[in-house]
UniProtKB/TrEMBL annotation:
Domain Sigma-54 factor interaction: 193-420
The protein's name in its UniProt record: Response regulator with CheY-like receiver, AAA-type ATPase, and DNA-binding domains
Phylogenetic lineage: Bacteria, Pseudomonadati, Acidobacteriota, Terriglobia, Terriglobales
Alphabetized SMART domains for the sequence: AAA
PANTHER family: PTS-DEPENDENT DIHYDROXYACETONE KINASE OPERON REGULATORY PROTEIN-RELATED (PTHR32071:SF117), TRANSCRIPTIONAL REGULATORY PROTEIN (PTHR32071)
Record-level GO BP terms: regulation of DNA-templated transcription
Organism listed in the record: Terriglobus roseus (strain DSM 18391 / NRRL B-41598 / KBS 63)
Amino acid sequence: MSTAPVALTTQQRSVVLVTPDADLRQRLTDRLCSMRWNVFTAAGGAEAMAYLSNSAPEAMIVDHWLPDLDAAEFKDYASAMCPETDLLQMDGSASAGCVRSARRNELLHAIREVHDAGEATSVPSALPLKFDGPTWLQAPIAIPPLEPVPKVADSAAFGLPFLIPQNDVVQEHRNGTRPLSGPVEVRMNLPEIVGDAQQMRELARVIRLIAPHNVSVLIKGETGTGKELVAKAVHRLSARAGKPFVVLNCAAIPEHLLEAELFGHTRGAFTGAVASRIGRIEAAHGGTLFLDEIGEMPLPLQAKMLRFLENGEIQKVGENDAVRVDVRIVAATHQPLEQNTANKLFRLDLYHRLAVFPVDVPALRERAEDIPMLAEHFLRRLGEAAPRRSMTPEALGALMAYHWPGNVRELGHVLQRGVILCGEDAVLPEHLRMRDPQSTSWLSPG
Ligand SMILES: Nc1ncnc2c1ncn2[C@@H]1O[C@H](COP(=O)(O)OP(=O)(O)OP(=O)(O)O)[C@@H](O)[C@H]1O
């Protein structure tokens, strides 16, 4: 499966404001709105990237420090994603090589006014307003008073060796330019991943943080928990969003064909290879390859995969020359891969290479509080094709009481059956048929 690049039209009078400083964000937003700008605010780079994957603003104002991404790296991503967007730094200077919005002066006025209004209470800054326009902009920008820097929530819960700038970066701000103030409000939910349980909010936060980094991700979780949705979200929130998202389920392809499927093959490379074909890795060039059920990959192929991850080169089956490809690997497994490495079923070196960022997706029974929201989501979706059905509290109670071995996928199927069985009524407990995984019979709470 691949995603065609999307050409976005630049939205006039829309500006994205990216700063972790809640107070500055609010003041600048108020000013820009009063000047008839549509303002989208983001507390960090990942949140802004999510917005940019669907919209191209006329301009963007970016702080010189972001809590989740290196600001310079973020600006590179942003200009690659939205080449028609005028990129301004918070000090009023423009990023090198960016287009110039016809209304850049309006934005600079707003920055300056907010600066002036905040000056009385602020600490003078060494940060100059570099701008090749009117001289009134050649003053230092307002600096909010120094406040304790909010600590980004502990990532150790997810076992992630995050590259989150913390104390050392804070120190740099204390010594140098503008300090942080106000809470870091990174919006948590992702539209495609339904769930508001604490684990899901944490999952969404982790996805936003890791997506922009060009590293491999290993998604772990039981079947039907939404691992593919997570992989898609990582892709969508990355700078690769406009490039292909290719899926390969390692368990779905016979072992002897998997290598050719991954790396491609030349004509006549093996019986049945009537024409040369590119593999999924090459098809994902520039984008992301999602390797589902990576635990099923045979050991000899694991060695080849490792080589690709190390040197970025692939060799088609039957071909001597290697070609370079630029692909981000996101893998998923429901198996205990770490355990499998101990049993020599999975290569330890490949495991470490893939699990730069391990992400755990919780089972549905561990977050039963999300079941009403998910049920609502599925009933709404099912209602797009047929009249929408409601559900009685008793039916919802039955859903809450079940242990969901097939997780969210199973919930979707149970509701699909329920909607069919209930005819024109509301879904009742007797319409809910859960499958007993230990037998071939159906469980019905009714
Ligand atoms: N949080 C969620 N919100 C909405 N839909 C979800 C969620 N989690 C899973 N789903 C839906 O459940 C189904 C299964 O999800 P998905 O294929 O991503 O699971 P998976 O973990 O990759 O499963 P498997 O391990 O069997 O491949 C899909 O239809 C998906 O849209």
